[in-house]
Design goal:
Layout lengths: L1 H7 L4 H20 L22 H5 L7 H23 L7 H26 L3 H13 L9 E4 L10 E6 L2 E8 L11 E8 L4 E6 L2
């Protein structure tokens, strides 16, 4: 256990240990509704944003994979690569400037090695992501106006808030906004009154 801690806190693994920690916090905040995130549980009204199919994303076969998912996995595999290099080769690398030089190059090269690995592993899931996108585009956002939703975040303001709605058996997570001041909190029931297309958010009011 001591060796494991030493490895994850050693350069260059430490760099990706920090990023991996932030990634875990991101998904925890999303699942608990503690943050107003673009992708929450992969089930918003609109499907998670799909990366551009051109350029280097296409080269690494990451096209068609939600950006947050691909980046999260790239960070994880980059961390794993750095961890293994530190574990098996740290004693063979001279300390000082050489160690720093090798570490910096490893930080740069790790995601370049990780990206195609993620692309291959996630390729079987691309039809699922595509279906999510098509379902989201085919669903009329205005059709949810007048429906009831349940607040997921600790508060709802004019620029913050998430709510959950049951739409034909699918639990959808929406970004919602409300006039202030209000007493809205997690678990409260609200009525969707308006869809703001430019912001991709829904205006809500307390259920009376």
């Amino acid at each position: 256990m001591t060796d494991f801690i030493n490895n994850i806190l050693s350069f260059p693994t430490l760099f990706y240990t920090g990023l991996l920690g932030l990634t875990i916090l991101y998904w925890l905040a999303s699942s608990l509704g503690l943050a107003d995130l673009e992708v929450a549980d992969g089930a918003e009204l609109e499907a998670p944003e799909v990366t551009d199919s051109s350029g280097w994303m296409n080269k690494f076969k990451l096209d068609g994979i939600p950006l947050t998912i691909s980046i999260s996995f790239i960070i994880f595999f980059s961390w794993a690569i750095c961890f293994l290099v530190v574990h098996f080769y740290q004693d063979k690398i001279p300390e000082g400037l050489v160690e720093v030089f090798v570490g910096l190059w490893l930080i740069i090269l790790a995601p370049l090695v990780s990206a195609p690995i993620v692309g291959v592993l996630c390729t079987p899931l691309k039809p699922f992501f595509k279906k999510l996108k098509e379902d989201g585009e085919g669903r009329n956002a205005d059709s949810l106006i007048g429906h009831l939703a349940t607040i997921r975040t600790n508060k709802v303001t004019i620029n913050f808030g998430d709510a959950e709605i049951d739409d034909q058996g699918a639990n959808l997570i929406l970004k919602v906004r409300a006039e202030e001041p209000n007493d809205l909190k997690r678990g409260d029931s609200v009525v969707i009154t308006e869809y703001l297309a430019e912001e991709n958010t829904y205006q809500v009011r307390p259920r009376t």
